[in-house]
């Protein structure tokens, strides 16, 4: 007979107990261990993927993988290359793993060029699940699951390419995708706005969900912030003063590791014959909004969403397959067909 459990009631305290310091205790342990963030960049060569990552984290973390020598043979397949760094800011250590995908979309025939990318993302889920199911597993499992995928869109000003739509459909099923319009300074402001609107319409038409997702667990402020990012609606200043009324997704960005001087002040930007583009000027591009989005407002949510949505979907699918396989093995093979082998963990 099950015992009835009375609902908890909120009680006042007659004196100070001290359990409010639990947040400080958690913070101390987390700071000691450090944090892990894995980001993947996907896009054709020459769109400034390496430059943008270096600009976001204010350090030269990865080199460009584009062909710079005419004698260098073109890549025949999409490659996967990792670069890991530990960066520190105000006592917080971040283990940053950057996954680049040189060769994607650069061939004459780009059929299935996205398969190595999808396979890599799924392989990280498989590796994490195997470590979870190990009898003598590590206390802290090394997390190589991709938390964020920056998808670079070529600034054509027209519409998404068919390959972009196909890849975005595949990626959105397994990872948090954040689309960006690369080198947006090649578009006028009017072209940029119409291009962004066309992209949003195409994503909606093909039912492609971009991050951040709608969640009932978000409080009012989080819902307002995410809605402003998704649709560009103006949110109250008391909630988030850094976001103004505009369509943020896809982010129209410009990256630069070089400093240029404006009015005697060195800023990161690009100089051309018409003037200087300051990448941190909100009137020039949306780099600041992207950086704030990735590091200051949604970094932890990207990590949690990966674990609670994408990895959990994979984990459930695999464990159900293992359960069905075990039941089939226990019942024995039928005369008409041999016993099925135990499935391996993976997609």
UniProtKB/TrEMBL annotation:
It holds the Pfam family Septin. The keyword Cell cycle applies. GO terms for molecular function: GTP binding. Gene3D superfamilies: P-loop containing nucleotide triphosphate hydrolases. InterPro entries: G_SEPTIN_dom, P-loop_NTPase, Septin. Keywords: Cell cycle, Cell division, GTP-binding, Nucleotide-binding. GO terms for biological process: cell division; septin ring assembly; sporulation. PROSITE patterns: G_SEPTIN (PS51719). One of its GO terms (cellular component) is cleavage apparatus septin structure. Residues 325-347 are annotated as: Disordered. Residues 33-321 form the Septin-type G domain. It comes from the Eukaryota. Residues 325-334 have a biased composition (Low complexity). PANTHER family: SEPTIN. Belongs to the TRAFAC class TrmE-Era-EngA-EngB-Septin-like GTPase superfamily. Septin GTPase family. This is Septin-type G domain-containing protein.
């Amino acid at each position: 007979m099950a015992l009835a459990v009375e609902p908890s009631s909120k009680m006042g305290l007659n004196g100070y107990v001290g359990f409010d310091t639990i947040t400080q205790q958690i913070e101390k342990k987390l700071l000691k261990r450090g944090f892990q963030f894995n980001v993947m960049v996907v896009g054709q060569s020459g769109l400034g993927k390496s430059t943008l990552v270096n600009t976001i984290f204010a350090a030269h973390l990865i080199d460009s993988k584009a062909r710079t020598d005419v004698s260098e043979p073109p890549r025949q397949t999409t490659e996967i290359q990792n670069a890991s760094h530990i960066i520190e800011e105000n006592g917080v250590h971040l283990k940053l793993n950057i996954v680049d995908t040189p060769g994607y979309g650069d061939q004459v025939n780009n059929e299935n060029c996205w398969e190595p990318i999808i396979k890599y993302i799924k392989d990280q889920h498989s590796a994490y699940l195997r470590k979870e199911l190990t009898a003598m597993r590590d206390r802290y499992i090394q997390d190589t699951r991709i938390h964020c995928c920056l998808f670079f869109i070529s600034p054509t000003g027209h519409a998404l390419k068919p390959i972009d739509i196909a890849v975005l459909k595949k990626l959105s099923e397994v990872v948090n995708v954040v689309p960006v319009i690369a080198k947006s300074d090649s578009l006028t402001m009017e072209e940029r706005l119409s291009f962004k609107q066309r992209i949003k319409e195409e994503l909606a038409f093909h039912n492609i969900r971009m991050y951040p997702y709608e969640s009932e667990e978000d409080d009012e402020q989080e819902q307002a912030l995410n809605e402003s990012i998704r649709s560009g609606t103006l949110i109250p200043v008391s909630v988030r003063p850094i976001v103004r009324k505009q369509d943020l997704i896809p982010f129209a960005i410009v990256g630069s590791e070089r400093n240029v001087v404006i009015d005697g002040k060195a800023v990161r930007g690009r100089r051309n014959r018409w003037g200087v583009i300051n990448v941190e000027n909100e009137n020039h591009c949306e780099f600041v909004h992207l950086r704030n989005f990735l590091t200051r407002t949604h970094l932890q949510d990207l990590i949690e969403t990966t674990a609670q949505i994408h990895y959990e979907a994979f984990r459930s699918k695999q464990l159900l397959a293992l359960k069905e396989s075990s039941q089939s093995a226990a019942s024995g093979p039928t005369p008409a067909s041999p016993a099925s082998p135990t499935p391996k963990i993976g997609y």
